[in-house]
Every structure is written in structure tokens, then in C-alpha cells.
Amino acid sequence: MADLEAVPEDWSSALVVVAHPDDMEYGGAGAIARWTAQGKNIAYLLACRGENGIDSLEPTVCGPLRVAEQIAACVAVGVTEVEFLDHPDGTIEYGLPLRRDIAAAIRRHKPEFVITGNHRETWPGGGLNMADHIAVGRATVDAVRDAGNRWIFPELGLEKWEGVKYVAAASSPLATHAVDITDSFYASVVSLRAHKAYLEALSGDMADPATFLRSMAENVGKRFGGGLATSFELLAL
After folding, report:
1. In angstroms, how far is the first alpha carbon of the chain from the final one?
2. Residues 6 or more apart from 142 whose CB is under 8 A from it?
3. Which of 184, 189, 223, 232 has the most CB atoms around its CB within 10 Å?
4. What percentage of the chain's residues is helix, strand, coil (to nearest 5)?
């Protein structure tokens, strides 16, 4: 595989848009911690509250718990602005309502960099991705364009925002760029560990944050000059 280029860092504000609590913590949080340490302003938007993500917990109990865990996970990487939409966990649909909600957030936060999760059909290594991730990632890419067009979603009552310089998808199988997270790796582990209830319901490698994240970071680092790194697919606007 080709070597990865460095993600551009000539920006000061970003918006992370993902489907569920824990999505950015499985790989991308180390980059977020690096960037907030540089003084960059980063906010999160989650399409759902993860209410259907733990089989042993009723959704009415699970949703608030996972919201609290996500907020703690964000604090661990220096993020305090966290918003949650009410799209249904597990059955999020790509379409105008989702695009509208994301475009509204882009117009409110006015980011220069928009970061989403992997919206491709598979993960690195070939495992199948899930529908929520694909829907939210696709909608995020389209919402960046929507947010910059004054004639799309005028009912939002928000001025258009054409200032997005970069759009990137974390942990994509088509990764083109990477970020050195050697100094922020520990913060990424703490961030994932904040999802305590979710991790307790898992088994296998994904239930062990330090081991799982280090393996990922080392593999990406092999394509990025050694050390620990996390990957992104930088998308053309």
C-alpha cells in the first residue's frame, strides 16, 4: 500500500459528525486530542444517542448512559461542545432530514474542517461496515455542499457557510492521509475507556482499548514514517 500523507493542519475549527457514541473513539480520537492541544476548536455532532447499542439495556436506560459516556469521552480529548440528534440508533436513514440536520450544524459551528466516520462499504481489512455509518458519512459529505448553498434548506434561517476547506473520513479503507498521535495516544485510550458500559458488553479485541488502539495505530504508523498514527481519507470538495 502507498504511504500516507499528513493531514493538513492549516485550520482552526472543526466539526466531527458521526453516527453513534464511540464511533470517533475507535481510531480518530488521538487526532482530536492532538488538535485540541494545538488550540484548535472542535465540536461533535452525533446523529443518534446509541440507545439500541447494548443488548442487555433497555433503550430508555441505554440512551442517557451512552450520552453521558460520550460527553466524558470528548472531555478526555479536549472537546466540550457535543450535540446529539434524535435519529433512531440502528436504523438511521440517508436522506433530506439527515442532510438538513447536519447542514444546520455546519452553518452554526462554521468549521473549516469537517470530520466524519468511514462511509465506505467495508473497513480496512475487509469487514463489512454498517448502514448507520454509511448513511451518516454520505449525508455529511453532501451536507457540506448543502450548507454552502443559500437556496438549500433556507427554512433553517441560518446563513450559508462556504468556509469548509477539508472533509475527511476516519478509518476508511481508502485512507490517503494520517496524523501522528504518538503524543496523544494515551488520551485516545482514556477517551475510549469512557465508554465503560459499552465496552463491558463487548468481547474480543474491541473490548480492550489500549491493545486494540495500539494495534491500529502501529499498523497505520507503518505507512506514515513509523510511530503511532491514525488514518483519514481526505475527500475532494
Report:
1. 24
2. 99
3. 232
4. 40, 15, 45
- What is the Cα–Cα distance from 59 to 116, expressed in whole angstroms? 25
Q: What is the Cα gyration radius of the chain? A: 17
What SS3 class is residue 136? helix
Which residue in this structure is represented by grid cell 498521535?
A: 181
Q: Where are the beta strands (DSSP E) in the chain?
A: 5-6, 13-18, 41-46, 81-84, 113-116, 166-170, 177-180, 229-235
> What CATH number is attached to the domain comprising 90?
3.40.50.10320
Whose cell is 470517533? That residue is 24
Q: Which residue, among 17, 9, 16, has the nearest Cα to 34 in the 3D structure?
A: 9
Q: Is the Cβ–Cβ distance between 131 and 182 less than 8 Å?
A: no
pTM score, two decimals? Answer: 0.96
- Chunk the chain into consecutive blocks of 10 residues (it has 237) and report each block's average pLDDT, rounded to whole numbers: 92 98 95 98 98 96 98 98 98 98 98 98 94 98 98 97 98 97 98 95 86 96 95 92
- In this structure, are residues 28 and 56 in contact, taking their beta carbons and an 8 Å threshold? no
Residue with cell 485512507: 175
Per the structure, the complete domain to which residue 88 belongs is given by 5-235
CA nearest 27: which of 169, 223, 165, 227? 169
Partnered with residue 45 across adjacent β-strands are 17, 83
- The string over 148-178, giving b where at least 16 C-beta atoms fall within 10 Å of a residue's C-beta and e elsewhere, is beeebbeebebebbeebebbbbbbbbebbbb
Q: Any bridge partners for residue 81, and if so which? A: 43
Q: How many domains does the chain have?
A: 1
